[in-house]
Task: structure prediction
Amino acid sequence: MSSGLSLSYVARNLYARKLTTALTAAGMALVVFVFATVLMMAEGLRHTLGGTGSDSNVVIIRQGSQTEVQSTITREQANMVESLPGLATSPEGRARISREVLVLVNMPRKGSGGLANVVVRGTTDNGLLMRPQARIVSGRPFRPGSSEIIVGSAMARGDVGLRIGDSIAFGMRSWNVVGIFDAGSSGFDSEIWGDSEQMMQAFRRQAFSSLVVGLREEGSYQGFAEALMRQPQIKADVKRERQFYADQSEKMANFISILGKTITIIFSVGAIIGAMITRYASVANRTREIGTLRALGFRRGNIVMAFIQEAALLGFVAGVTGLFAASFMQMLEISTTNVQTFSEVVFRLVMTPGIAVQVLVFSMFMGVLGGVLPALQASRLEIVDALRSA
Amino acid sequence: MMASYVFRLASKNMWRHRLRTGLTIAGIAVAIVSFGLLRTVVDSWYAGAELSSSARLITRAEASLSFSLPVTYGERIRRVPGVKDVTWAIWFGGIYIDEKHFFPQFAVDAETYFDVYPEFVVPPEQLAAFKRDRRGVIVGRKTMLKNGWKIGDQVPLKGTIYPGTWSFTIRGVYQGADDKVDEGQFLLHWGYVNEKIKAVLPSLADRVGVFVINIKDPGASAAVSAAIDSGFRNSLAETRTETQKAFQLGFIAMVDTILVAIQTVAYVVILIIMAVMANTMAMAARERMREYATLKALGFSDRFVSILILGESLSMSLAGGLLGVALTFPLAEAFFSATRDLFLVFTVTPVTLALQVASSLLIGICAALAPAWNSSRVRIVDGLRAVT
Result:
């Protein structure tokens, strides 16, 4: 990799042409910024939904129903599940199982005036016990057997903006918000929780949506899943809770990635062309300098290397600038509908080391791609002609 | 005479730095392509709402679309003054082979559905065959093509909402009356699904997702909507009735944060490329300062020199713009096939094309402004003395 020409020569070349360097780098930095933001968006969605739930809980929904909202589980089926092996015990000494009911309720969004499909989850004491990550941050938990609800912190903060003391009407009843809970910026933060049996009555439902069961230990999943499959009356799909929610982010995250990558690729072509124009101009301006270097005994390879390093350094500077700007996007919180579950999800953009590396490599690659042809042109100059040029 | 002379001189100038000109044209083409593509993405989201006639109302459960309504509401809605036809549909949501082979499936009332949707054009004999066969389906042309089906084929679906494996026979194909109609739907008998589901999951039986209503007077849509909803107020299943357009826009509003982001990006791209282009033009003009001074010394006016610069800039930006417009079509096609499930239609509209051409003109003019002004300001002596 030794170019013969020192790195400080390369760096000073960029520094000597501050304006051109800054303009070219700014164009590339913008592309990097867009690329990083898109990756952060997809990652944020995965992070939020993938961080929902725990590995020691299992979600059971009706076979083939895909989401909790579409699923139905009867009381008899729930009772059968309770007697399966591998389950943890609740404080009352029974199997730790939460019979949950999920509905989507329209609520107005404050900003745009549209409607959000908010997940309203009827849960139980066991359900709360199995999700210790959900802590009440203000107010108090709902009282079982009442029309009280608690709202996730994202629903309290974001476009929906619910407050303690608000009341919401659905299922021919009015429900009072008595508390706000935070579940470590996971998908639960975009939900509203209340008492399961109350919701069943309000919606005149005979069947639950899903069952959430606690495993005695994480490893007993296999045994439990097999025991469940052997029950002919229960046709169900089983997944670890964390996996269940992580899978719900895939479609949307893929869409964001495809759209983002298409945009980025097209932009990057523009940025590479921009870099090429300025690199060619830079070669043209430095013809004499290149001739001098050759006359001093530097080889063609040295010259090519130096120019490529310069381009890569330019890309690196652009990458760091773009990343720096993108890191501020972590403050942004997006509230949108998850197309896969049709429900509102609030997530924050997330920067990871993986994204940073990916973006930097991409940026340097852009720089090198823009610099390689001009570098070859520079090396092809004949010493005499180069020295003689104006 | 003068115009053709300017044009010849401008194009000669343009080709002096072939590489730089080529690169600049390519850069503009890229900008125009991305602008067109982003606009098309936004347009396509709204396309579903654009097609709707205002004489059509949609009634759904007040709480949210995930709640169903009793089918008996249909008769009560029909008696509301101003209502012409009523039909109903519910999302079926079956899986064909796997989730990648997605197409929208609705269980519809076979007798009335196609009366309310005249823009779904089905040959009469196929429609009759569909009505006769309870397991028959009518499929949109696009979905037929995508899966390589023909009439008479059996289509097995794995139910998600309605459990079990279902098998349907294709009895007909519908085409859109114009190209804004979604030709991807798979329409099956609600009556058949309802009958089968009664035995296994009675709680899902006799329920529908939406009622679709044609009204006599499009101007009365607000009054009729209010009349329908008030009829079901304080019942177990309250309703929300809105025009089809408002209903569709409600879907779009769910993802509007993403749309706003896309639109912002589209305009930023144009700005960046404008800067790059302006930079190139400035570079070229600076190099030719001596020539421009010579032209002026020979007696050509400032205006002539400015027009020369503008001509060069415009030819470059228009060449780039046209190349971009030409590239938009294959790229839009490729993007559509990568994200097939998410868009009903994905066509580049004439408005987008016009905007693409307009923005390339704008780029050309803006890029020429500063150099043209500079060259007209410079004194002949200074210009001749200029070092490049």
In short: Chain B has two domains: 2-49+255-385, 63-237. The mean pLDDT of chain B is 86. The radius of gyration of chain B is 30 Å. The longest helix of chain B spans residues 302-338.
